[in-house]
Amino acid sequence: MAIGTSMTTAWKREQIQALFELPFNDLLFQAQTVHRAHFKPNEVQVSTLLSIKTGACPEDCKYCPQSARYDTGLEKEQLMEVQQVLKQAERAKSTGATRFCMGAAWRDPKDRDMPKLQAMIQGVRELGLETCMTLGMLNGEKAQALAEAGLDYYNHNLDTSPEYYGDIITTRTYADRLNTIENVRSAGMKVCSGGIVGMGEQAKDRVGLLQQLANMEQPPESVPINMLVKVPGTPMADLDDLDPFEFVRTIAVARILMPTSHVRLSAGREAMSDELQALCFFAGANSIFYGEKLLTTDNPEAEADQQLFARLGIVPEQRSVHQQQLEQEATAVDQAHQALAPEPLFYNAAP
Ligand code: SF4
């Protein structure tokens, strides 16, 4: 049994496999039933992702254009300045995002980076946004320091099953990943952890990934399910496409196994048709990511998402009471802001 798993509630592989093998409509019906028992069925949480340090990563994740080992033409950047990050967070908030995720392409954060990271967390919180970071591996001390700065979520994906993992990454182990997640939990932060499908894995590896996530003593609050984006220059550039129905099945099984987690459609969403995304929402996906392009372009992606939400009658999930309190505190400090009016929604489907 892997680190952090529960002896009493463990899902067996055969049970998970059986869910995957249900007739498609039966699986979606079950997933939608579970979804409605725990969430408002027509709400989707919206997060925004900003890369605060891009490229030149020493790790060898075969799917990743940010690895220094692959020539993907990606421009490398230094860690961003705090003020730049806060400016982008304000823009994200104005589009209705409720969580701001900051990602750095590192093996792990170094001591010298910590003060800047802590200032980013504090600044983003003061804007009334939930904070999330993904910075690579974390030891207990760094996890504690980030938690004390107010970090709400830490993202660290398991990527795939323990068995297939060694084919994808050799520079850190599956146990390293589980240890980081344990450190995040012990520091009192929420966990965002999921994986990537379409990496040439077998069906049993999708089962194995979801088993690991669902059997954690406390499953992740956020479970991103990514479809591989095949970036030229990476070793996975020429893999065959995964059957989109298999992707939808993975979302549906994740929903059934982790009924109270937000299941997030993230990487690969741009390449999906509206119909496929709608099917994913029906299967229980209730969170989406806007990429960093949102922050650097005229935002056509956000417009397309707004239109899709409107066509499906979906509304963005409201911030939690805790988030709203944070915002009120920030507002009280700055009397110049007449922030008594409610925050505009990213999209309001009400007629
Ligand atoms: S650790 Fe993260 S940034 Fe680095 S290569 Fe792996 S996925 Fe990419």
TrEMBL record:
Alphabetical list of InterPro entries matching this protein: Aldolase_TIM, BATS_dom, Biotin_synth/BioAB, Biotin_synthase, Elp3/MiaA/NifB-like_rSAM, rSAM, rSAM_sf
Cofactor: [2Fe-2S] cluster; [4Fe-4S] cluster
EC number annotated for this UniProt entry: 2.8.1.6
Domain Radical SAM core residue range list: 42-269
GO terms, biological process: biotin biosynthetic process
Binding of [2Fe-2S] cluster, residues: 101, 132, 192, 264
Pathway named in the protein's UniProt entry: Cofactor biosynthesis; biotin biosynthesis; biotin from 7,8-diaminononanoate: step 2/2
Residue numbers binding [4Fe-4S] cluster: 57, 61, 64
Keyword Metal-binding among UniProt keywords: yes
Record's function text: Catalyzes the conversion of dethiobiotin (DTB) to biotin by the insertion of a sulfur atom into dethiobiotin via a radical-based mechanism.
Protein name per its UniProtKB record: Biotin synthase
Species: Aliidiomarina taiwanensis
